[in-house]
Amino acid sequence: MKRICFWINVIITITFAPLSFAFNLSFLNNSPIAYFTQEDFRIMETSALKTLNSGKDNQKITWKNPKTKSWGYAIASNTTIQDGRTCRNLTIYNNANGITDKSDYNFCKFGKDWRVVINQR
After folding, report:
1. Alpha-carbon gap, residue 27 to 116, rounded angstroms
2. For every residue of the chain, which 3-state class applies, written as one string?
3. Cβ partners under 8 Å of residue 16, min gap 6
4. How many domains does one find in the chain?
5. What is the pLDDT along the chain (121 residues), one digit of tens a residue?
6. What's the confidence (pLDDT) of residue 16?
7. Is 109 contained in some domain?
8. 82 within some domain
9. Is residue 57 part of a domain?
């Protein structure tokens, strides 16, 4: 459940950080993550972390859950060093229930953890 909350928080934070939360977020009901199971989130997270930790720039790392038929991939790019930390762009594509979505994030590594950063580049 913590991983699901992590990814939902990432998506909401990146999308709405500069905006007020005074409006309806029901559009998320029509996104792939609305149909994800906990296993889908776990597989996607494993793929995203593998991409950040060991994927080469512009290398596609795919994931698929044969039980739910959900799938996706992640592509890291633009690896740089910012303030002594490794930073990478991460593009995540997800598909569930016939709905496909793409999200772009900027991550930097703080110790052993990757964290989403805003306006780092």
Report:
1. 22
2. CHHHHHHHHHHHHHHHCCCCCCCCCHHHHHCHHHHCCHHHHHHHHHHHHHHHHHCCCCCEEEEEECCCCEEEEEEEEEEEEECCEEEEEEEEEEEECCEEEEEEEEEEEECCEEEECCCCC
3. none
4. 1
5. 555 555 555 655 554 444 444 445 555 667 898 889 999 999 999 999 999 999 999 999 999 999 999 999 999 999 999 899 999 999 999 999 998 999 999 999 999 999 999 865 4
6. 47
7. yes
8. yes
9. yes
In a domain, 22, yes or no: no
Distance CA 19, CA 109 (A): 26
**C-alpha torsion sign, points 35, 37, 39, 45:** positive
Q: What is the pLDDT of residue 45?
A: 94
Residues 6+ apart with CB under 8 A from 55: 61, 74, 75, 76
By residue range, what is the domain housing residue 90?
Answer: 2-17+27-116
Helix axes 38-54 and 2-16, enclosed angle (nearest 10)? 70
Tokens matching residue 80: 């740089």
